[in-house]
Design brief:
The protein is α/β, with parallel strands linked by helices. The protein is built from seven helices and 17 strands.
């Protein structure tokens, strides 16, 4: 019997994943990652890593009759995710901490803990699928069948070794079906609302978190147009992102958007809507999944953020793990620091981090 450790967050998805695997004949262990210390001893209402969520996971594990552990990964999370999150904003970039958490914490530190417990696999409640290409022997990452819930975008950076040890039981289900399974089993979390925010942010805005962490980087400065004319003042570079319109407090007769951030000069550059659209950018630290490296050029469907519908583009290899991406049609708010993920139909070709917009 193959042993699997299920990362249980206390939500409906990971709970159903654990149940499906147990029903499928696996020896299931449940585990919740402790990644963020509650300094005031209370449970914050928005994040997904508080005491109440741990207890929900524990109760589900008890109901399923499986062992359950709370594993302390605070140090790794601080080093690999929190530090990255702050550094990216300090550089005038917009990070995606969920991708780093998946790559380095769930399928990094937690996977190592799973192996130490004798588990062959690590399973999560992600809506995605993993398959094996018989011709190449490489593992492939594919979209979940529910287009509204597909989470393959945040898993693009997983290596072959990580994919080899992944199980995503929910990839073949739609969200409504998952809630139906949970309800039929009498799981207490069957109607629990989803967590939509960054797990380590205690309030609904990340601004206060960054103000505490990046005091020197949150100094006010000028808002200028492309000609350098000062139009107003900003609150601090980390509080702005490419394409942002709200919160600029500028009255110019036409809507203005953030088109560039210059942390070295502490300047926010704004322009009209058409100036936010671009078609070419550079992606670095590319992870190519079906083969060892990307071809010299190819066509793909490219997403430039999680909620982006994607668009047709041509990829040009420019060096070691570096690609130039050229969209067929300009796209709004191509943002340094975000991930660009490449698809061929339902298959993830790979992805990387947006470094520069040309």
């Amino acid at each position: 019997m193959k042993r699997v450790l299920v990362a249980m967050s206390g939500g409906v998805d990971s709970s159903v994943a654990a149940c499906l695997l147990k029903e499928g004949g696996y020896e299931v262990i449940g585990a919740t990652m402790r990644i963020w210390k509650e300094t005031d001893g209370t449970d914050h209402p928005y994040g997904c890593c508080g005491v109440a969520h741990v207890e929900d996971a524990r109760r589900v594990a008890q109901q399923l009759g499986i062992p359950f552990y709370v594993l302390n990964l605070e140090e790794a999370f601080e080093r690999e995710v929190i530090a990255y999150f702050c550094e990216e904003y300090e550089r005038g970039r917009t990070p995606n901490p969920c991708i780093l958490c998946n790559e380095r914490i769930k399928f990094g530190s937690l996977l190592e803990r799973a192996k130490a417990l004798g588990a062959h696999y690590l399973a999560t409640g992600h809506y995605a699928r993993v398959g094996l290409d018989p011709a190449s022997g490489r593992f492939l990452l594919k979209k979940g069948i529910d287009p509204k819930k597909d989470q393959s975008y945040v898993l693009f950076s997983l290596s072959q070794d990580q994919l080899r040890h992944c199980l995503f039981p929910l990839g073949i289900f739609r969200k409504g079906e998952v809630r139906g399974i949970a309800s039929s089993l009498g799981l207490r979390v069957h109607d629990k609302p989803e967590s939509q925010e960054i797990c380590f942010i205690h309030d609904r805005s990340y601004h206060s978190f960054l103000e505490e962490r990046l005091k020197s980087a949150t100094e006010p400065g000028p808002i200028v147009d492309k000609n350098g004319t000062v139009l107003g003042r900003h609150r601090g570079i980390p509080f702005y992102t490419i394409g942002q319109r709200r919160g600029l407090r500028l009255a110019r007769g036409v809507p203005l958007y953030v088109v560039a951030l210059d942390p070295k000069r502490n300047v926010v550059v704004v322009g009209e809507k058409h100036e936010v659209f671009r078609d070419t950018f550079v992606v670095r630290r590319v992870n190519w999944i079906p083969e060892e490296e990307a071809p010299s050029s190819c066509r793909a469907w490219v997403k430039i953020r999680y909620n982006h519908p994607g668009a047709e583009a041509v990829l040009f290899r420019q060096g070691d793990r570096t690609l130039k991406v050229q969209f067929k049609e300009p796209q709004k708010a191509i943002t340094p620091g975000q991930a660009a993920v490449f698809y061929d139909g339902e298959t993830v070709l790979g992805g990387g981090w947006i470094e520069e917009v040309l």
